[in-house]
Every structure is written in structure tokens, then in C-alpha cells.
Specification:
LssY-like-C_dom; Immunoglobulin-like; LssY-like C-terminal domain-containing protein; single chain; alpha+beta; 2 domains
């Protein structure tokens, strides 16, 4: 019983401390920045013009956020993107935000992350301010609109898609922007990899291209070039902006990890690595790509590995090294279906060359994992969006779609006969 007064006094002290903390939290309110100047953003802007429309964009760094928002909003896990659209057409245009980032953040979402307890009117001012700085649709004919779009963060270089919708038309743009304060991995700095012109063969017809793709290596190797690594089961053909735009539209992001560079093709690590993020940040599918020393009618040709980790979307998302799931054909086919919905695919075909392996006699890769495959490479031809599903041409190199019900993983033989 004698402890009750002491307990009572303790509870009073705790209550007072809590009240003081709440009061301080409510006092630590946000204030409107004294001046909003987009001049520094314009100095770094990257611009493009098409069909009477000019677009400009800049990625905001932490200093830009502090100046424009009175707080470093980058620390909340978003990456503000400044956009400006000059509409020189006779139509009203709308920015399709999901085309820039399928998982973009609304201004109110980001503002809410900065709310304070019992902020009241200050929180309301914060919401209004973030909304007013956001990009506002529509863009009337002859008008200019500028504002902020909150995207997911990228490092080094950010590929930004800007899709403007009018009546029965879409005006697409793709811009490569440098991220302030970011470091660019020197292994990824050369995009595309600069082959000497004398080492590049430009094929003009599909038949000769098909033969060249089948002659590419079946697989990557280790750094010594002696041990076989993961299979090269995909090829992408097109302009870099079109390839990148299609991948970004399907939520693939540049995400190179140290383990990716143990895979070597043409004597070097991958020129790019992209991963599609799933629930809880788990990596669902990865793509490692290498620019090949061939072209098709002047367009770039990338050979790639497409794989998924053991566990798929249930794999621990904090892992630094993932084990390849053995069914690599499934990962390849998931990617194909994903890209078909990107509105950026012009043609699709399949060629031999990846080396068939059956489930009963799988092939071993670098870390001791095994895989099986029908040995086919998916060849995706990219074009400037939009392209509908009904526009996609299916090449008859290997009649994969017609023969899928008869082909088994690891099946051998020439499917074109």
C-alpha cells in the first residue's frame, strides 16, 4: 500500500512529460518557404520537342526539396520530379501520371508523412501547399503548365516517360535525367557499351538476324570465362529510349547488385540490371542485359538473362544474393506477357541458342543452382508507344505459340521443321 503514492506521483510525471512532448510536437510545425524558385531546376533541365509540344524535366535533390518545400521530402522515400509542358497544339492535353511512374505518390500522401500531432491548421496549410506545387491537369491549347510529380527513387540516371493524352492521340516522350547527388556505377556509365564500328555487324533482313541471334553465346560465364553461368534467354531490339520506356511502364527499375557482376558476357558484366519489385519490396523478376556487337537496321540489339529467385515474390526482400529458380522459361514468359502490356512491343519471335536442358538432367550454374529450359530465346522488337496488343506481329522463326502444347521443358529438335 505504501507504494501507491509513489506510483501515483510517477504517473503524474509521465503524464506531464507526455503533455510536454505533445505540445512540442504541435509547435514543431511546418512553415511555407519564403521563396520558391525553380531557376536552379531549369538550369539542369532536359527537354524534348515533338508534334508541337515541348517538355522539360528535372529530378529534385535534397537541397531542391528544402528550398521548395521547406523540408527534405526525399528522406520520406520519394523522388520529386519537376515537369513543364508547353502545349503548342490545338488540343487540350492531359499528363498521364501513371505512365511516368505506375506507383507515383499523390501530393497529399507525401504531405501527410510530414504532418505533426495536433497540427490542425498547419497540417491543412501543408496539404494545400503540396497540392498547389503539384503538376496540374489539363494543359489547354497554347498554355504552359509546370509542377512536381512524386515518383519512386532511382539512382544515378533516371529514365522518365512523359505521356500526353489528347483526343484520339498520344504524344510520348522519354528523357534520361541525372539524379543530383547520386553516384553512377562506372560499370554502368557507358550506355550503350561503345563497340568499335568495325566490330559491329548491321543485319538488314530477318533471316540473317535470326541466324546471328542463334550464334550468340548460350550462357554467361564467370569472371574467368571458364565456368558456365545463367542462360541468355531473351533478346531486345530497338532504340534505347523505347526499350527503357517499355520496362519502366511495367515497373522495372534499375537495381544492380554486386552478385550481378559475377555474370560475364563478351568479357564484361551486364550493361544494365533491372528488377521488378513485388509485394513488400521483394524482387519478382530480374533482367541482366548486354549490348551485342550486332544491329538490326541500325537498331540496338541486347542479349539478356531473365530469371526469378527461388521463392519468387515470397523471397526475403533484404537478401543481397538470390538463387536462380530452376524454371527459367517461366520467368522468360512472364516477362513477355508483361512487356506486351507496355504498349511498346512491335514484333515477337523465338530462336534457338540458349541450350536445352530437361528437368531430369538440368544444367548447373555458378552458385550450384540448377535450371531447365526448352533452349529458346524470346526476341522482342520494341517501338515507340503506343502499340496495341493486336498490332504485335508474331514471327515464325520458331512457331512457339503453335507448338507450345507439344513442347516440353528441355525438348530438343528443330521446332521449325
Amino acid at each position: 500500500m505504501s507504494n501507491l503514492p509513489t506510483l501515483h506521483r510517477g504517473l503524474i510525471h509521465v503524464g506531464r512529460a507526455l503533455c510536454i512532448a505533445l505540445a512540442l510536437a504541435s509547435c514543431a510545425t511546418w512553415h511555407v518557404p519564403p521563396e520558391v524558385d525553380d531557376g536552379p531546376l531549369r538550369q539542369r533541365e532536359n527537354s524534348a520537342v515533338s508534334r508541337g509540344v515541348r517538355v522539360s524535366a528535372t529530378v529534385l535533390g535534397s537541397e531542391d526539396s528544402e528550398r521548395m518545400y521547406g523540408a527534405d521530402v526525399n528522406r520520406t522515400g520519394v523522388q520529386p520530379l519537376w515537369l513543364e509542358v508547353q502545349n503548342g497544339t490545338s488540343q487540350v492535353l492531359w499528363l498521364l501520371r501513371s505512365g511516368t511512374d505506375p506507383d507515383y505518390f499523390s501530393p497529399h500522401e507525401v504531405a501527410w508523412s510530414m504532418h505533426t500531432w495536433f497540427g490542425g491548421a498547419a497540417n491543412t496549410r501543408l496539404d494545400d501547399y503540396f497540392r498547389d506545387l503539384g503538376f496540374s491537369n489539363p494543359i489547354p491549347p497554347g498554355a504552359t503548365r509546370s509542377g512536381i510529380l512524386f515518383t519512386n527513387p532511382d539512382q544515378g540516371i533516371k529514365l522518365v516517360n512523359i505521356d500526353l493524352l489528347g483526343s484520339q492521340m498520344l504524344i510520348p516522350f522519354s528523357l534520361f535525367l541525372r539524379v543530383p547527388g547520386g553516384t553512377i556505377d562506372p560499370r554502368l556509365a557507358s550506355i550503350p557499351f561503345p563497340f568499335p564500328e568495325t566490330a559491329v555487324t548491321d543485319y538488314k533482313d530477318l533471316a540473317s538476324l535470326c541466324a546471328a541471334l542463334e550464334r550468340l553465346p548460350c550462357c554467361a560465364t564467370d569472371t574467368s570465362g571458364t565456368a558456365q553461368a545463367d542462360p541468355l534467354n531473351a533478346v531486345g531490339i530497338g532504340q534505347l529510349t523505347d526499350i527503357g520506356a517499355a520496362l519502366v511502364r511495367r515497373d522495372y527499375r534499375r537495381d544492380p547488385r554486386e552478385s550481378d557482376f559475377t555474370q560475364r558476357v563478351f568479357g564484361r558484366g551486364p550493361d544494365f540490371v533491372m528488377r521488378k519489385q513485388a509485394q513488400a519490396g521483394a524482387p519478382a523478376t530480374w533482367i541482366r542485359g548486354w549490348l551485342a556487337p550486332i544491329r538490326f537496321q541500325g537498331q540496338l540489339v541486347y542479349v539478356a538473362q531473365v530469371g526469378r529467385p527461388v521463392g519468387g515474390r515470397f523471397a526475403p526482400h533484404r537478401e543481397t544474393r538470390y538463387t536462380l529458380h530452376e524454371n527459367v522459361d517461366e520467368a522468360r514468359n512472364i516477362l513477355i506477357q508483361d512487356l506486351l502490356y507496355s504498349s511498346g512491343v512491335d514484333k515477337l519471335g523465338f530462336v534457338n541458342g540458349a541450350g536445352a536442358a530437361s528437368p531430369t538432367r538440368p544444367t548447373k550454374t555458378l552458385d550450384g543452382a540448377t535450371y531447365y529450359t526448352d533452349g529458346l530465346r524470346a526476341v522482342v522488337f520494341f517501338a515507340t508507344r503506343p502499340r496495341s496488343l493486336s498490332d504485335v506481329e508474331f514471327l515464325d522463326w520458331v512457331p512457339y505459340l503453335e507448338e507450345r502444347h507439344t513442347r516440353q521443358p528441355g525438348a530438343t529438335g528443330n521446332a521449325r521443321q
